[in-house]
Amino acid sequence: MSNRPTLLEEWPLDPTSRTPLHVQFANCLLEKIETGLWKPGDRIPSERSLMQQANISRATVRQGLNALALAGAIERIHGRGTFVKQTKYEHTIYHAYSFYEQLSAEGVHLQDQVLTRELIDAPENIAARLQVETGSKLIHLKRLRSANNVPMMLSVHYFPYALCPDLVHDVFDSSLYQRLHDHYGLPVVRATDRFEARLPNTTTSRLLKISRRVPVLYVERLAFTTNDVILHLGQTYIRGDMYCFRTDLPARATSLMLKQEANTAGG
Hints:
Elements: H1 7-10, H2 21-34, H3 47-54, H4 58-70, E1 74-77, E2 81-84, E3 89-92, H5 99-105, E4 110-121, H6 124-130, E5 137-147, E6 150-160, H7 176-184, E7 190-198, H8 202-208, E8 216-225, E9 229-239, E10 243-246, H9 255-265
Parallel strand pairs: 3-10
Antiparallel strand pairs: 1-2, 4-5, 5-6, 6-9, 7-8, 8-9
Helix pairs in contact: 2-4, 3-4
């Protein structure tokens, strides 16, 4: 005897219910997403397939899909299909940050896959940024970082070998910044970040599982440790559909604002 769920079990829709059929259908879709049957980034069946599976009209299917799209649960991409929307993480910038620590604080497990860890001779352009001699030894570290098993960012780092020679073979499974602080006595005391949109190259798009036509957020960081020594140059390529940054900015003081403050102070 087959254990395959019946049509009613898979799609418990009741045409006699006071709840509109498209709302019932949308709730069924949402349940499949929330229970993990369809995961973020997954393509859900076509309208025709859903019509046949749930035994409902195309109009009902479209109404249900449109409702979920408006709710932000799915996204409909012309020419490609309908996909479960990726979770988007927001990072408020207050200070020099660690992606690992930031996401861990939100309950997200950031998984690292080390793609490259090697000792290289500093190219001229990288040496200039790190303020070291061209050809001096650098540790080149490249990691693919995933959130809940979904590729989110590709991180490339260059460290002066003289600062942390053991890093070329050190094994760590938590925050790189925490490791540098605890094991090498190299805290990040400040950093300069530059943000820009870029189109990914073939390798980056393949690793992040996105189209080459989809821009990524490129973050370039120059991090400094004690005595304003440059600790590393970082180049991170982040999926724009999964991560964003936010900063809260005070208004710039104007002559009118200053005059109002003076009047208030004067009673």
